[in-house]
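thought: user wants a sequence for this fold. calling inverse folding tool.
action: design(structure=
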């Protein structure tokens, strides 16, 4: 610590005159300081450093309500995309073992899953990524500071260490990329005391057992999906609709498959309270909003997946005049990620109206770094961003939902090509494929530009990623028809689409 204090940074002894003089003379400690060490913040900082900027990253993770904590890398690496996909893979392997018997594999005895083994392996991989990020910052000559950052003015950041010591840094530009954290409901007795969130589920050392997942976002459905897949009794409680913001026909297919897969759903239900019984079990009381009746059941774990809140409250934004959306708490940003205060920028999950997706934050961060370094004027294009929901039957999409296409263009001005298909892998295994579905939404006239593409089926992310590039090239329905398929694949069903919804014809694919 003593050696650190002798460097350019000064702990609390640093005088405000010293900070002010640096600001007025235009001499700063750094060209860029990034607050937030998630995927976007790290991408921004490393890109800026590669372009010759002097850069520091401030990252500090407050433990969850349950005390869960993790290392550098943000939500995606530690409590999001990476552990989620690995646990989803664990569930897929369980389904594959069942299929294997139909393919001739002689598997004797009961098949069971051990949570502790999976969790340890996943957590070890995450820790290796934490270390890898630190090494990358060092290699790129980005200064990493494990301190909590807040803003003093448009060029000054106050850092607070875990031990409570303060430091001040100055920078020509400041970037905020602090992301968000899961919310607990504040009006339900016992919710905080007895529940967990996605900040905790991936770091549990013991199996969550019988689980109630409250919420129907993609986070809720993905968690419920892998919990069911590894053999746990899992219920999803849905207040209104599933996958809000996604195409609702596709959302229905996803939840229908999950129900047939073994996940239970409590539709149109609202939790009332959570109580811990003497046995240690959690008794949940809820209301059915359709019938008005009250219900109770016991669970080992209650997982709240009812939305996320931006990490903006402790940054000191309002006193500086950084404008926020009062309802969401997110930062109002322009197309170039600038805020209402000069030299302060924000992107990723904390930006109002921005997709809460890791790849968009990474790309936006890199582009911002290039602009701030004077190497580019290119701005992030937030249109036609692809994504995939990693539920038991995966759902990938890019572009507009059918509802949004109708709203923007009018129902009579769009054409929807669709098909129900059966993956070859499902045939020998005798799996139900009634929710495997594809639709492509196009303009009805002219070249029939593709407005949206939706796919449920195996490896949906891999399929959707490939077709997403065509959206950047102005893909049309005729381009699909001119494309030669790879046989036999699920992806080739997209280039064979020829039945429209408007026709009313059976869209079930026959033959190979």
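)
observation: tool returned 512 residues.
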């Amino acid at each position: 610590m003593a050696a650190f204090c002798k460097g350019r940074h000064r702990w609390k002894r640093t005088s405000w005159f010293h900070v002010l003089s640096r600001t007025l003379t235009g001499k700063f400690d750094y060209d860029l300081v990034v607050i937030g060490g998630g995927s976007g913040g790290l991408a921004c900082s490393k890109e800026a450093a590669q372009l010759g900027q002097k850069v520091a990253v401030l990252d500090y993770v407050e433990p969850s309500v349950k005390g869960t904590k993790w290392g550098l890398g943000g939500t995606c690496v530690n409590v999001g995309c990476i552990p989620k996909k690995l646990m989803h893979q664990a569930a897929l392997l369980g389904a594959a073992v069942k299929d294997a018997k139909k393919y001739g594999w002689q598997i004797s005895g009961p098949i069971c899953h051990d949570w502790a083994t999976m969790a340890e392996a996943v957590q070890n991989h995450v820790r290796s990524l934490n270390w890898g990020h630190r090494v990358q910052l060092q290699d790129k000559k980005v200064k990493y500071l494990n301190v909590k950052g807040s803003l003093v003015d448009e060029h000054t950041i106050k850092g607070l260490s875990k031990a409570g010591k303060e430091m001040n840094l100055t920078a020509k530009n400041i970037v905020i990329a602090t992301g968000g954290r899961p919310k607990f409901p504040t009006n339900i007795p016992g919710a905080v005391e007895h529940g967990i969130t996605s900040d905790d589920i991936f770091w549990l050392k013991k199996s969550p057992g019988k689980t109630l997942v409250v919420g129907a976002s993609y986070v809720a459905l993905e968690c419920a999906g892998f919990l069911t897949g590894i053999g746990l009794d899992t219920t999803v409680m849905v207040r209104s609709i599933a996958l809000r913001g996604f195409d609702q026909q596709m959302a229905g297919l996803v939840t229908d498959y999950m129900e047939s897969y073994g996940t239970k759903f409590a539709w149109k239900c609202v939790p009332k309270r959570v109580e811990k019984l003497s046995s240690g079990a959690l008794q949940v009381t809820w209301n059915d909003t359709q019938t008005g009746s009250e219900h109770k059941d016991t669970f080992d774990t209650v997982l709240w997946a009812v939305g996320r809140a931006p990490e903006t409250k402790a940054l000191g934004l309002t006193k500086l005049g950084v404008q926020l959306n009062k309802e969401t708490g997110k930062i109002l940003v322009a197309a170039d990620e600038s805020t209402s205060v000069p030299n302060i920028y924000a992107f990723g999950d904390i930006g109002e109206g921005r997709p809460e997706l890791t790849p968009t934050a990474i790309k936006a961060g890199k582009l911002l770094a290039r602009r701030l370094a004077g190497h580019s004027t290119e701005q992030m294009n937030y249109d036609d961003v692809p994504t995939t929901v990693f539920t038991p039957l995966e759902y990938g999409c890019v572009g507009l939902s059918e509802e949004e296409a109708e709203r923007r263009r009018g129902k009579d001005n769009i054409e929807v090509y669709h098909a129900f298909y059966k993956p070859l892998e499902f045939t020998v295994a005798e799996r139900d494929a009634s929710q495997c579905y594809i639709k492509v939404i196009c303009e009805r006239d002219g070249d029939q530009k593709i407005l949206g593409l939706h796919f449920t089926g195996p490896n949906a992310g891999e399929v959707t990623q490939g077709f997403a590039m065509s959206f950047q090239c102005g893909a049309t329905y005729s381009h699909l028809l001119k494309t030669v398929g790879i046989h036999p694949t699920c992806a080739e069903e997209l280039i064979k689409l020829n039945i429209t919804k408007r026709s009313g014809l059976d869209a079930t694919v026959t033959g190979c």
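thought: summarizing for user.
answer: Here is the designed sequence. Confidence is low (pLDDT under 50) at residues 1-25.
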